[in-house]
Fold each of these.
Amino acid sequence: MTPTLTRPELTAADRCDRCGAAARVRAILPSGGELLFCGHHAREHQGKLRELAAELQEG
Ligand SMILES: [Zn+2]
């Protein structure tokens, strides 16, 4: 269990960037940016995130 990037775990204070629900997944972009998604939006954007080679971390 050695993540390539050290990020704090998602907490109840982390919110989905799309709808404001509690975040369940963090998507780390190759550029270093990150996006937070609830379960619903993580699934919805999963295909696009794969295209972008984002690293998905479930919290
Ligand atoms: Zn959402």
Amino acid sequence: MKVLLANPRGFCAGVNMAIECLEECIREFGTNIFVYHEIVHNRYVVEKFSSQGVKFVNHLSEVPAGSILLYSAHGVSPEIRAEARQRDLRTIDATCPLVTKVHLEAIKYAKANYNIILIGHDGHDEVIGTMGEAPESITLVETPDDVDQLSFSQDDSLVYLTQTTLSVEEANLVIERLKQRYPNIESPPKEDICYATTNRQHAVKQLIQQADLLLVLGSQNSSNSKRLMEIGLAEGKQAYLIDGKDELQPEWFETVETVMITAGASAPEVVVQDCLNHLKEEYGATIEEITTREENVTFPLPKELRQLQSLRE
Ligand code: SF4
């Protein structure tokens, strides 16, 4: 068996920053720390921090007044920020700057009285946060069919924004339909689908034809990981999204010569390496890593972390 190992894969700059931020908080303040929602959408990462004592909450009512609360990489709405202030929580914002960029665009266009069409997945943490910035001005669409249901006129001021982790191709189908119906609709100043999402999808598209089967390391609730698996399926390949090697099924490999492996932006390298070791031990796999694009993006830790640290000094 041969394994084609995609590069880039796994952690993006936003996820790296959020995890480093939480690790730094633990070093500085101990594990009595609360995180609003999963710090990143990955079971391994969340279970690791939970086992250390970090508490992930879905409601701020679960957080005692005065506690330290981290906002996850996916961002939060202004309503949550206001509630946290009211509860006197010491907040640290680990929102990815590329998600914040979409929030700021939403605020800017809402102030300028645009109707904003947000392309994204209903119920995703990032979409909830972005919509919360200007709920009166934002309409969510997921598919080209949703665009057909819109009731704006040609004269309305319209702009579209997108969730950062969409399938580039699927988003383009929605954008095309928007432009057909509303030729004057404006685009975001810079692409909203982030570099990490785009690069990981590009790698799968480049390499998948050389493989019989695609394994994507990532959790089921990770939007960008799911999109990677869907690309494999759309190319007519067997494709599975798995959290780790324990989910591998021997029957997947019965007639397979080449396996492609990648990982979503929230999946740690350790789960990739575990899989590779398993395939080497069980099937004598040889590994070929192929780089389709170089990545060198990094984000600084949130300023609130430095402020809280300086209060302790
Ligand atoms: S996937 Fe993109 S937007 Fe999401 S955390 Fe990573 S870099 Fe930021």
